[in-house]
Amino acid sequence: MVLVREGLSVRVTTDPLDPAEAVAAVADEGAGGTCLFLGTVRDHSEEGPVTGLTYESWDELALARLRELGEELFARWPLRRAVLWHRSGELGVGEISVIVACSAAHRAEAFEACRHGIERLKQDVPIWKKEHLAHGESRWVMGA
Fold first, then answer.
1. What pLDDT, on the 0 to 100 scale, is given for residue 125?
2. pLDDT, tens digit, for every residue of 108-131?
3. Pairing mode, if any, of strands 2-5 and 48-57?
4. Angle ∠(138,142,144) on CA atoms, nearest 5
């Protein structure tokens, strides 16, 4: 885990992501609401059945962008804590690929920041996804 500032944790790792660890990382006595988003590998795409995904990242830049995004979340919402974690490497169907979690004094801020966090992460962080299809082909998916 990389603790960037008090209350902000960013991570890009080949290790499995643990939702309980993320919830613990955003726990705060001043938080009345915690929002947790889990992105998981699904078994299908527009191209057909999926057997797994490969995520590749430019780790140094990805971590820098995650830190910037975290700072943006704290600047826009009165958050207590936030987590922005992403997997890299080979993932199977059902595995967690990304976790965004936010805690705030009130639920609305936690929900809004969490939603903004995952949307911006997908747009701005240099992590790329390759789908492995059941019929044997693989393809890079842009902007996913």
1. 96
2. 999 999 999 999 999 999 999 999
3. unpaired
4. 100
Q: Which residues contact 38 (CB under 8 A, 6 or more apart)?
A: 19, 96, 98, 99
What is the spatial distance between Cα 134 and Cα 116, in angstroms, rounded to a whole number? Answer: 33
Nearest alpha carbon to residue 55 among 27, 15, 14:
14
Q: How far apart are CA 98 and CA 61, in angstroms?
A: 17
Helix spans in 27-94 (H)? 59-76
Provide CB contacts within 8 A for 68, sequence distance 6+. none
pLDDT tens track for 80-103: 999 999 999 999 999 999 999 999
